[in-house]
Design a protein that fits this description.
By secondary structure, the chain is an alpha+beta fold. It is built from 14 helices and 17 strands. Strand 1 (about 5-15) and strand 2 form a beta hairpin. Helix 5 (about 180-190) crosses helix 6 (about 195-210) and helix 11 (about 325-335) packs antiparallel against helix 12. The longest helix has 16 residues, at about 255-270. The chain is globular, with a radius of gyration of 25 Å.
Length: about 425
């Protein structure tokens, strides 16, 4: 109804439900998509109220909540006081020194990851995504800034951080001469779990990742998807609170990628927090609660997939021409009815433009193309994708090349 609004309150409590902290309080008008997103992503530290009152009333409610002594308010109790975030980084910087001179990988990057969520890092080659992951997993030190994982300082207590995290890199780190079971048992022993517990955990993970039939075969005979599953299983041997995934499905076929997505979703449902980097925009769409876009070592945008798409709004109108020679004339027509400069594919047959009123613009464009005797293979509308967002924010589409190349070369030259 008109005037309907929502209030989002993030809070923490002690085990009795006494409010300890009230933060990031916000209110605003609700459409169905916005409200569903808040409710769907609500975790034990989030309260969402939906009231049929104008936003001004909600602003008064926020002031009212803040006016109370914190000890006098009682909210639903949350586990262990439910900290707001499990990963918190502020002002991270890093400069690598190459033969051509200093290269800035991070320039004051801030990052916050709520407990039990999935956050995806997206960015062009050399944006600094892998550098962030290496800092948070204690592999490299920041030049400046602070970073904490579950309250543990990654610089002051790297061993403490390593005890609670799991890491799966871009390439499967497995011993090809060992069986899948033996690889996982070895990881358990390296974590000092003991022989019996290492074997029990290895078998548990073999079954979880649906590798029971292949668990006693050497890994060198595994497919790419099976190797990735064993590698991911190795990162879970200690039941980590936080799982770092660096390009988890790079190089996998679509079927293996979807299967691995299902495994990751199960882990998150069981309470694992995931920070992943990915070169596949559809992967972020599928897995991430929030997406962070990084460019030149800084965060340039952050939000849910739908919120990021909403930044560029409207629809996209697409046409596929029969004759590439009609490209110039078709582009003029799309420019006439579109809300921006039309884009054209390299072969000259595909064109796309942003439009405000999608159905009306499509009718007008089809009529104008028909009047100009321009034949079409196809025409239609679509909502913006993350690729559109990426293009607008960074100036180019997401590369499908290995995003880590720049960082690796820079690190070798340190």
């Amino acid at each position: 109804m008109p005037g309907t609004a929502a209030v989002l309150v993030r809070y923490s409590t002690d085990e009795h439900g006494t409010l300890l902290h009230l933060a990031e309080v916000a209110s605003g008008p609700v459409d169905m998509e916005f409200h569903a997103d808040l409710v769907g992503r609500a975790h034990p530290c989030v309260q969402v109220w939906r009231l049929s009152e104008p936003v001004e009333v909600h602003k008064m409610l926020i002031s009212w909540l803040r006016s109370f002594p914190l000890v006098s308010l009682v909210f639903p109790p949350t586990r262990q006081g439910c900290p707001m975030t499990i990963i918190e980084a502020r002002g991270l910087t890093k400069v690598y020194h190459s033969k051509s001179g200093p290269v800035r990988a991070l320039a004051g990057l801030d990052l916050s990851v709520p407990r039990g969520s999935v956050k995806a890092l997206l960015g062009p080659n050399g944006a600094g995504k892998t550098t962030v992951v290496k800092m948070l997993t204690t592999l490299i030190r920041p030049d400046s800034g602070t970073a904490f994982v579950d309250g543990i300082d990654v610089v002051a207590d790297p061993k403490g951080v390593r005890r609670i995290i799991g890491v799966s890199g871009q390439y499967a780190a497995v011993d090809e001469n060992l069986t899948g079971f033996e690889n996982l048992e070895m990881v358990g022993r390296l974590y000092h779990l003991g022989g019996a517990e290492s074997r029990r955990r290895a078998q548990e993970l073999i079954d979880l990742f649906e590798l029971t039939a292949a668990g006693n075969r050497p890994v060198k005979g595994f497919s790419g998807g099976m190797r990735r599953r064993i590698d991911l299983a190795g990162a879970l041997v200690i039941n980590p609170k936080v799982l770092f995934l660096d390009e988890p499905t790079t190089g996998l076929d679509p079927r293996s990628r979807i299967a691995l997505w299902a495994v990751i979703k199960r882990l998150v449902a069981d309470g694992t927090t995931v920070l992943l980097t990915t070169q596949y925009l559809e992967e972020a769409d599928q897995l991430a609660d929030d997406i962070v876009v990084i460019d030149d070592g800084r965060v340039i945008a952050e939000g849910t997939s739908d919120h990021l798409k909403a930044q560029i709004g409207g629809h996209r109108l697409e046409v596929a021409l029969v004759e590439a020679g009609d490209g110039v004339a078709a582009r003029d027509i799309l420019a006439r009815y579109g809300a921006g400069e039309p884009a054209i594919t390299s072969d000259g047959r595909g064109l796309e433009v942003a439009v405000v009123d999608g159905p009306r613009a499509l009718q007008q464009v089809l009529a104008a193309l028909g009047d100009a005797d321009i034949r079409l293979h196809d025409a239609g509308m679509r909502r913006p994708t993350l690729d559109d967002v990426f293009l607008k924010l960074t100036g180019h589409k997401a590369d499908k090349a290995a995003d880590q190349a720049d960082d690796v070369e820079l690190e070798k030259s340190k």
